[in-house]
Amino acid sequence: MRKTVVVAPMNGVVTSLQKEQGESVIGAQSFSPTVIMTVGDVSAFEVEILVDETDIRYVTLAQPAEVRVDALEGVKLKGEVTEIGSSAIPRGATNASTTTTSSTANQAKDFKVTVTLKEPPPSLRSGLNATAEITTNKKEKVLAIPIQAVVVREVSKEGKVVDPAALQASEGEPSGVPRAKGEEKEGVFVVSNGQVSFRPVKTGIIGETEIEITDGLKEGDEIVTGSYKTLRTLKDEAKIKLDVKKGGK
């Protein structure tokens, strides 16, 4: 044993030591050899994150990412997407099994995405908790509004906006004649002359708090924003009263 030399298959740092001096080991010729230690390449780190199924379509290889590690407070690490999982993982599952059953068919799912860090600091260790923000698109000097300002309304064939309250009431009442449904459109409520009017818009990329408007609005238009409950029940051509708060010291 004194002349035995154990050669690591790669350069790196010992990240885990499974055996101590004096313990028995089984050689590599055996069906199940003993693992003495684990060697890791600390010059390259990968971060595995889960991306919601509704957002995975925006993620592509080589996109830049910003990684935050819980143990390294205030440190932002740069990386890029190097691998995108092709199999959905049920929310809360411990493995990537893709078997669909009655209990998981309607369950929310995620996809595993791997981000490789470009310049990992020496203080970084494997197994730490981390989060990542992936930049899927970037535009500058575009017209953007708060996300909550965009609503969906049904527009009839005659071009009239269907009152959401009346629509809900009609759907709850049985009728022998089916109601002719209009087209659902995204839009915003624009303020003009003391009342609001629904205006369809076309949207672009979505940020954390704002959404790009590519058509339907112009700079300087005054729009309504607020809670989901308020905008959900707001009627087209409803009269409003502006509450202007005066600033002061």
Explain this structure to me?
This protein is mainly β and 249 residues long. Among the domains are: 46-134, Beta Barrel (Elongation Factor Tu (Ef-tu), domain 3); 144-169 and 182-233, conserved putative lor/sdh protein from methanococcus maripaludis s2 fold, CATH 2.40.420. 6% of the residues lie in helices and 33% in strands. It contains 2 helices and 14 strands. It has helices spanning 164-172, 228-233; strands at 13-17, 37-40, 46-52, 64-69, 76-84, 89-90, 109-117, 130-134, 144-146, 151-155, 183-192, 195-200, 202-206, 210-215. Strands 3, 4, 5, 6, 7 and 8 form a 6-stranded antiparallel beta sheet that branches. A hairpin with a 2-residue loop joins strand 11 and strand 12 (195-200). The longest helix is centred in the last third of the chain and has 9 residues, at 164-172. The model is unreliable at 96-102 (pLDDT under 50).
CATH class designation of one domain? Mainly Beta
Helix content: under 10%
Distance between the termini: 81 Å
Count of discrete alpha- or pi-helical segments spanning 4 or more residues: 2
Give the averaged pLDDT, no decimals: 85
Number of strands: 14
Q: Could you list the spans in which at least 5 consecutive residues all have pLDDT below 50? A: 96-102
SSE topology string: EEEEEEEEEEHEEEEH
Specify the structural class.
mainly beta
CATH superfamily of one domain: Efflux pump adaptor protein, beta barrel domain
Give the biggest beta sheet.
Answer: 6 strands, antiparallel
| Global geometry | elongated
Which topology of one domain does CATH recognise? Elongation Factor Tu (Ef-tu), domain 3
Looking at the overall shape, the CATH architecture of one domain is Beta Barrel
| Content of β-strand | 25-35%
Q: How big is the Rg?
A: 28 Å
